[in-house]
Every structure is written in C-alpha cells, then in structure tokens.
Amino acid sequence: MKSSSPDKRNDYLTPGKRIRHKHEWLIPNLASPLAMERWHYVDRIGWARCEPGFYLKRGEIDAMLLHFVLAGELEHAIHDQWHGVRAGEACLMDMAAPTAHRNVGRQAAELFWVSFCGHDLDGWGDTLRIRTQPVFRGVNRAAMLRLFKDIVRLIEERPAGHEARLSMLLGGLLAELYAVREREHPLLAWTDDPGKYSPGILAAFQIMHIEHSSSLTIRYIAEYAELSPSRFAHRFRDEVGLSPMAWLNRFRIQRAQVLLHNTRRPVAEIARLVGLPDPAHFSRLFHRETGVSPRAYRRRQRLNAARPEYVQNA
In what order do the strands lie in the sheet with 41-50? Predict the structure, then answer.
C-alpha cells in the first residue's frame, strides 16, 4: 500500500470517517472507556477487493479479525497452516498470533472484514474452536451481510447508544458462527430435537450421557441400541455425522471444560471423572478439540473471570 499523505494519515484517527483506497475502504472506530471495559467493541471495519497474487502479512495485535468472503477465494495462514475460505464462508482469527492472507486463484476475491476487541474473546475462541477450525462453512449469508451493514451504519452515524448496539451486533456475528459450529458438532442436539433420531440412537445418546465416566465400548452401547455393533456404528454415523466414540469423546471434553472452569480438582482427577483415565491421552484429546492444553484452558478461564473485577477496581 502506498504511503498516505499527512491529511490521509489523520483520517485514521477520525472515528466514523470512511477511508477509501483503490481496492478497499475502511472505517476506524474510537471506543469509549465504558465500551472497552464492559462490551465487545469494533476497532475498524471495511471492505476489500483482493486481486490474484494478493499477499498480506499481519503482526500480532490484541484483537479478533473476522473475514466474510463475498466472492472468489482467499487463503489464510494461521499458526503456519493455510486455510482456504470460499465465497459465502467466514474465517475468525485471533490476532495474538501472526497471520497472513493471499489470493492464489485466477479471480479477484471480495470480502467484508471487522477487527474487534472486548471481554472474554478468548472464551469465544475456545467455544468456536478457532485455534483448530478457524473456517466457518454454511453461514447465513443474508444475516451476515445485514449485520456488517448495520455495524457500518452505526459507526458512521454514531447515534446515542451506538456502542451498546455495536456490541450487540458483534454478538450477532458470533452467534451466526456459533450456529455453524452447533450444526457441525451436534453433541446435545438430541435433547433439543429428539424426533430426528431413531429410537436406537436416542438410547445410545442416553447411555453415553449417563455413563460417560465409565469405560464404554461400542459393543456395550450397541446393546442399549438393540443393534449389532457394526450396524449401530453405521447408523450412528449416518444420523449424527460422527462416529459413536468421536461423539462420546467430544462430550467428555465438554464436561472436562466445565470441571476445569468451576472446580479446583487436579487435571488427572478430572480426566478420570470424564472417563479418560490416562492423563496423557486426555491431554491430547483436549488439545485436539480446543487447541490448548487443559492447564492452559484453566489459566485462561481464571484470568477472564478475574478481569472484570480488576478493571472495576483499577
């Protein structure tokens, strides 16, 4: 990007003023101390057109970056791994680590993007699994476009109460991403819509939920489903989209997250309580599902829990 003139550089300090370049525009936002203390808040938002051959590397900043691709395809490097994001898909990145973006296709890519900060973004990152799965496929395009346009309008017009509304709109974007994850990992969907599953699979859900702390086998669960082990495994994958053991282990890790957050039990004891008595195996599964170790997850949750009180008393 060409260096800006002094007047153009000053535009970056003017909240709500749209700054235009050849293939992009962006709008900086200046959050109040109240917004920074209590809500999610926008750092800046924009639109860009990335021509074939485009490449951009970003350093570390304390913010989240959301890309919603409108046309073409972009690739994003996160933790040294490239992820492709096509039109209609989104990518959420924790900018605490360096990232890079490129267009290796034959057509230009277009996207909306927003960088934002605020309370408990680490927690959202864990919930949305962005450290291992930063790309969101099957997002609601109309809802995403509406939310981006409403955020732009609020930053440009800055009506009374706009910061609280911006936080709500950012929450709306995160909710759309969460809906994608919920469809991809329907761990408790059977409790919300049991009618979509056959009786045998519902029986399997129930026994895995009740006895997840035990050493369960496919044969044991299949008996409750009144199916042979092979028939049960095939039907479970067809109806749920995961193997029975993959579903069970993800459920165990979710239970472990609750115990790590709400108790002071040792990690090895929590591993045993959720049915994964080998601490090393438990740690590997936990890292695969969440992107962090059990101990790192607990430290992060405690820091997030302590942060509001610290800010309030500062």
Answer: 19-21, 24-28, 41-50, 109-117, 64-71, 90-94, 135-136
